[in-house]
Design goal:
The complex is a heterodimer. Chain A is an alpha/beta fold. Chain A contains 17 helices and ten strands. Chain A is about 45% helix and about 10% strand. In chain A, helix 4 runs parallel beside helix 5. Classes of the chains: A alpha/beta, B alpha/beta. The interface between A and B is large, with 38 and 41 residues.
């Protein structure tokens, strides 16, 4: 939809008075004429990424599910300075798209990618591919991707990061993590070899993780927040008891503002797929987290309680059939929450065959009790119905 | 964004005049006021098949959010189009899961790229399983832009599938080469449905062919109706930024759909729909006539897209000395640059043979490929190579 009319519509729909128009302009730097505030930096907040000294906008850009390069390009045009991708995203196509979109801005940006590799050789091969696909000589941050314990962050891999750095292929070493974070984050800090930690944290998660984040930041780690929208779930189903409150837009923006208010979080990388989302996210840099936001988040939390897995790890190893419960719920979140069915299914299909063929219906009763109230058995059944 | 308010916004914002030239399709005359509550559905007969389909249908190729499909079915859209290969084979599964509870009141079409009857039947079995249904309403031989891409073997597979009750209607889809393939395919006296590229940029040249086919009882489904996506995001080196606004004027996508549906021989159209806003917009195309403002919008758009949008006329076929499949490559670039579907474009590109993907147009002193519609072919091919190669 046309960006212009979108703004007009918002202004009209929300019944904003004359001041509304002016406010809209500051939120929408690129298209509007007098965008002085934003171009001079007034609309962006910058933070330093721990000891790296890298200065980035507090709202970055997670490219994982973006398929439209012009959204990435536009974000860079208007002044977002941190972009994140990974070797594996979109079957290896994502880096290429991101690289093409950011070419003319490259030297002014912080660009990160990731590898899932388990050994040095594969990791360094991935890095060379990433550089080629991104069309750049160096990454600002190179993450070891999706690790949940020190057994997955071996000396061999950290040595690989170190040598990549000596060769000038990366500037800083990072690790990304979704699980076991309260324990794992302090361990990463203790190594003294990881400059940036990419954490999954949002309003639905345990405060212990927040404490670990704050301590890590104090020790000099640069903290980047992901999964800040708690799975998306942008539309409450009609009939849900929170549907009335959640009809009001803004839960996603409120979630982003919440994440930016977490002590220690330097920047965030929400997924952005279109211009409307980009425009909305920019507001998180200028608007404070309000009581109205908190009210929205409370309703959103209530709505997603039975759906959204916080990846706390409490269910690890509990399924008698051996299902990787948290992973499967995450794949379902890709489909139901992010609206990315193919992404969810591709992950599901990479599970071993014996796990794919398990049907939760065949169990008499499910032994898994989620401490956060997720209806595990019914979610797993849904995952099997839609993906298997 | 809240979609019912979106609809009321459209209704109010476009300030439609009293509609003078009212369609006489099977539904009641339009009342602009009704748009704010329930969209008005208009149906077309799919050839002589007896299937009554909403004239605005749903192309699922680039949809990643199943709830948009569910919502369309809730509204009453009753024709959904997928294909075995879309989204790495995941699209059918999503469509099937989203439509399961609506299955008895919607028609589902899928397609196969198979080159042999045996492969085609195997594809069909997979499609049925993935779509979680016993029967496809339309099964297309997919992307057959030359007459010899349809073999007796494949036709037999469609006949067998019909006999076995696995499909209702046999179709064929093609992106280009209409002038050659439409008469050829019609002569086979086999197909129930044609799925054809058709839009305002291609113009009326193929109208007689469409009419001929429709008269022979073949259902006509149009694709590529937007001539390059809802909101072309072509880079500024092709279109000056200040002109992009002109290109993307409010209402232009709907105008493009209306242009297609204004041809009464077209039974339905299957635009790609990725979100609720597009769905709500597209629905308007069914019930309001193509008017003067639409014509103006499209004229402005056409002026802008002229240098880059391939009409798939087939005139460049075989002209590249390096053997590049020019029209295909331009289409893949369109997926990335105008549909905003980079991975789709690149996956298609990477499926080309290696001796094709390693060609660089910059190595040719000059390009002998001349587009009769004024597309800057070598620049677009170079773009494809930069993006994907």
């Amino acid at each position: 939809m046309n960006g212009n009319s979108r703004r007009r519509f918002i202004a009209a729909g929300l019944g904003l008075p004359a001041a509304g128009a002016a406010a809209m302009r500051t939120l929408n730097p690129a298209l509007a004429g007098p965008a002085a505030t934003l171009q001079s930096g007034g609309g962006f907040t910058y933070r330093t990424l721990g000891k790296t000294g890298l200065k980035v906008t507090s709202v970055g850009f997670g490219c994982m599910i973006t398929s439209d390069a012009s959204v990435v390009e536009r974000a860079a045009d208007i002044g977002i300075t941190y972009f994140d991708t990974a070797r594996g995203y979109q079957q290896g196509n994502n880096e290429r798209m991101v690289g093409g979109a950011l070419r003319k801005h490259r030297k002014n940006l912080v660009l990160s990618s990731k590898t899932q590799a388990k050994d040095r050789k594969t990791a360094l091969e991935h890095l060379d591919t990433s550089l080629k696909e991104l069309g750049t000589d160096y990454l600002d941050i190179w993450y070891l991707h999706a690790r949940s314990g020190m057994d997955q962050v071996t000396d061999e891999l950290m040595d690989a990061q170190q040598s990549a750095r000596q060769q000038g292929k990366i500037r800083f070493a990072g690790v990304s993590t979704h699980q076991n974070q309260a324990t794992f984050i302090p361990e990463l800090v203790k190594t003294g070899r990881i400059d940036v930690i990419l954490v999954a944290y949002n309003f639905a998660m345990e405060p212990e993780i927040g404490a670990a984040i704050e301590a890590a930041a104090r020790a000099g780690a640069g903290i980047v927040g992901m999964k800040v929208m708690a799975g998306g779930f942008r539309r409450a189903q009609p009939g849900d008891k929170n549907a009335e409150i959640l009809k009001r837009p803004g839960a996603m923006l409120a979630a982003l503002k919440w994440a930016l208010a977490v002590p220690g979080v330097a920047t965030t990388i929400p997924s952005i797929t279109d211009m409307d989302q980009l425009d909305e996210n920019l507001k998180a840099m200028t608007e404070p987290l309000t009581p109205a936001d908190r009210k929205l988040l409370a309703a959103q939390l209530d709505y997603i309680r039975p759906l959204y897995c916080r990846t706390c790890g409490a269910c690890e190893g509990k399924c008698p059939q051996g299902l990787p419960v948290a992973d499967m719920l995450r794949y379902l979140t890709y489909s139901d929450g992010y609206g990315q069915f193919a992404l969810g299914r591709e992950h599901f299909k990479q599970l071993p065959e014996d796990l794919q063929s398990v049907r939760c219906r065949d169990c008499e009763g499910c032994t898994i009790e989620c401490p956060h109230g997720v209806s595990v058995a019914s979610r797993l059944t849904r995952a099997q119905e839609v993906f298997a | 964004m809240n979609s019912s308010s979106r609809r009321s916004f459209l209704g109010a914002g476009l300030a439609w005049p009293a509609l003078s030239s009212v369609r006489t399709d099977s539904a009641a005359p339009p009342e602009p006021a009704s748009l704010q509550t329930q969209p008005r559905l208009v149906y077309g007969n799919l050839g002589k098949s007896g299937l009554k389909v909403t004239r605005m249908a749903f192309g699922c190729m680039t949809t990643s959010d199943p709830s948009v499909i569910e919502r369309a079915a809730d509204i009453g859209i009753n024709f959904f189009d997928s294909a075995r290969v879309y989204q790495g084979g995941n699209n059918e599964r999503m469509v099937g899961a989203a439509l399961r509870k609506y299955r008895d009141r919607v028609y589902i079409a899928s397609k196969t790229l198979a080159k042999t009857g045996q492969q085609a039947m195997a594809d069909l079995e997979t499609s049925l399983k993935e779509l979680q249904t016993d029967r496809l309403d339309v099964w297309y031989l997919h992307s057959r832009s030359t007459p010899d891409s349809v073999t007796g073997d494949l036709l037999q597979a469609q006949l067998d599938a019909k006999k076995q009750g696995k499909i209702r209607l046999a179709g064929v889809s093609f992106h280009g080469g209409h002038a050659e393939v439409m008469p050829a395919f019609q002569k086979l006296n086999h197909f129930d449905v044609f799925l054809i590229s058709y839009n305002y940029a291609m113009g009326h040249t193929i109208d007689p062919l469409i009419e001929q086919a429709r008269k022979a009882g073949i259902g006509i489904v149009a694709m590529k109706g937007l001539a390059g996506g809802v909101k072309p995001t072509v880079r500024s080196y092709v279109i000056p930024p200040e002109k992009l606004n002109l290109l993307n004027q409010e209402g232009a996508p709907v105008a493009a759909l209306k242009w297609v549906l204004n041809n009464r021989n077209v039974d339905t159209i299957i635009p790609s729909i990725v979100d609720m806003d597009q769905l709500d917009q597209n629905i308007q195309a069914m019930s309001s006539p193509f008017g003067e403002r639409d014509a103006r919008l499209l004229a402005a758009r056409l002026e802008q897209i002229k240098p880059w949008y391939c009409r798939m006329c087939g005139a460049c076929e075989g002209q590249c000395p390096k053997g590049l499949p020019v029209a295909d490559m331009l289409r893949f670039t369109m997926y990335a640059d105008s549909y905003g579907q980079f991975p789709l474009g690149r996956d298609n590109y990477r499926a080309l043979p290696e001796q094709i993907t390693t060609v660089r147009c910059a190595d040719c002193a000059s390009c002998p490929v001349k587009c009769p519609n004024g597309v800057q072919v070598s620049a677009r091919l170079t773009r494809a190579q930069e993006l994907f190669g």
